[in-house]
Design brief:
Layout lengths: L6 E10 L5 E4 L6 E4 L7 H7 L7 E6 L13 E5 L14 E6 L2 E11 L2 E5 L9 E12 L2 H6 L11
Antiparallel strand pairs: 1-2, 1-3, 1-9, 4-9, 5-8, 6-7, 7-8
């Protein structure tokens, strides 16, 4: 079956940086399950998988704009520690989600000086070229419930 919008796709993948270091991989684990066309993968990878079928393999190199984006200095901000009450003991490198005007965003604490905390809302892989090796494990029609919920249910997906 061909990968098109609203189909459930299971893939195995390995993500490497330009130096060949593995950044993430599903090897040795369960395949990643997603619904095509719902923005569950970085845009360039979803586009590259469109039209592929069960058993297909591909290697794709994505520039930052098609991956996790270009580093945006506007996503770096300094806030008083008191505005992060309930986050526990703050440490450099710690990450948490916060609601923004653009929805939920992951922030990383990049510095703590006196009572001020610097937060970076850029994805850790922003500005990076992403090199994927992908194998399509299976493709099937999504159920009505999966489409309504926006995620895969059952094997490889979400369990309610």
């Amino acid at each position: 079956m061909e990968i098109t919008a609203d189909r459930v796709v299971l893939i195995h993948y390995t993500l490497k940086d330009d130096a060949g270091a593995v950044l993430d991989s599903s090897a040795g684990g369960k395949p990643l399950a997603y619904i095509q066309g719902h923005g569950n993968l970085v845009p360039g990878l979803e586009k590259a998988l469109e039209g592929k079928q069960d058993g297909d393999s591909l290697a794709v190199s994505l520039p930052p704009a098609e991956g996790y984006g270009i580093h945006d200095p506007a996503l770096i901000q300094r806030v008083p520690k008191r505005s992060l009450q309930g986050a526990g003991e703050l440490k450099k490198g710690m990450q948490f989600q916060a609601r923004t005007d653009d929805g939920m965003r992951l922030f990383t604490v990049t510095a703590i000086v006196a009572d001020m905390v610097t937060l970076d809302g850029n994805h850790p892989l922003a500005d990076k070229t992403l090199n994927f090796d992908v194998q399509v494990v299976s493709v099937r029609e999504a159920t009505t419930e999966e489409l309504e919920h926006g995620h895969v249910h059952g094997a490889g997906g979400h369990h309610h």
